[in-house]
Design goal:
The chain has 203 residues and is an alpha+beta fold. 43% of the residues lie in helices and 10% in strands. A four-stranded mixed beta sheet has the order 1-4-2-3. Strand 2 (98-102), helix 4 and strand 3 (139-143) form a beta-alpha-beta unit. InterPro entries: Bact_OuterMem_StrucFunc (IPR050330), OMP_bac (IPR006664), OmpA-like (IPR006665), OmpA-like_sf (IPR036737).
């Protein structure tokens, strides 16, 4: 049968293999792994875009100037310096309405304070037009009287708070219409509250 003939042949082959001495071991072949392409550690499906090289866009200017006033409506040297702190080109480059809010302290009647606040706004408007070349058509004047203070007009005992009254005698120059300004300030306050809440959670 076939398996009987194959058995001696198999023994012969095994014997020859056992008599053969192994040759000297050669150097192991260096295994070169194919280079993997570099990949970002940011997941492609995360929706994160890496910034491209190039010029960055400057944020839009937010023009707000507070001009201090004395008891009257005349521009003091400090008031002029506050306005001149901004380069004249800023006033010329910016577009849109400029709202000028006049304010007063609480001394006197409401009517008198409203007149005083509007007179201060008019004094600032004249300076912007005559000295800085701002188009008068862009100016929107609002006299708020004593109704929007930034400091207490009175002390807790009812006496005059002279430091607070001095802070309230002022003019604010703000880029935008009153509606735009209210919206912008509300968004800024909301952003500050969110940032404060996030910082509190990290503590």
């Amino acid at each position: 049968m076939m398996w009987r003939r194959a058995f001696p042949l198999t023994l012969m082959v095994l014997g020859m293999a056992a008599c053969t001495e192994p040759g000297p071991a050669g150097e192991p072949e260096e295994v070169v792994e194919p280079e993997q392409p570099l990949r970002s550690i940011i997941r492609e499906d995360a929706g994160i875009e890496l910034p491209e090289d190039g010029p960055t866009t400057e944020p839009a200017k937010v023009l707000e100037v507070t001009v201090p006033f004395g008891v009257g409506s005349g521009l003091s040297e400090a008031a002029r310096e506050a306005i001149d702190a901004f380069d004249a080109e800023v006033w010329e480059e910016e577009e849109g309405i400029i709202t000028i809010f006049g304010h007063s302290d609480s001394i006197g009647s409401d009517e008198a304070n409203e007149r005083a606040s509007l007179a201060r706004a008019e004094a600032v408007a004249d300076y912007l037009v005559e000295e800085l070349g701002v188009d008068r058509e862009r100016l929107n004047l609002v006299g708020l009287g004593e109704h929007n203070p930034v400091a207490p007009n009175l002390n807790l005992d009812g006496s005059d708070n002279q430091a607070g009254q001095a802070m309230n005698r002022r003019v604010e120059i703000v880029l935008g219409t009153p509606g735009e300004i209210v919206e912008r300030r509300a968004l800024a306050e909301q952003s500050e509250r969110l940032e404060a809440a996030e910082n509190a959670q990290e503590l």
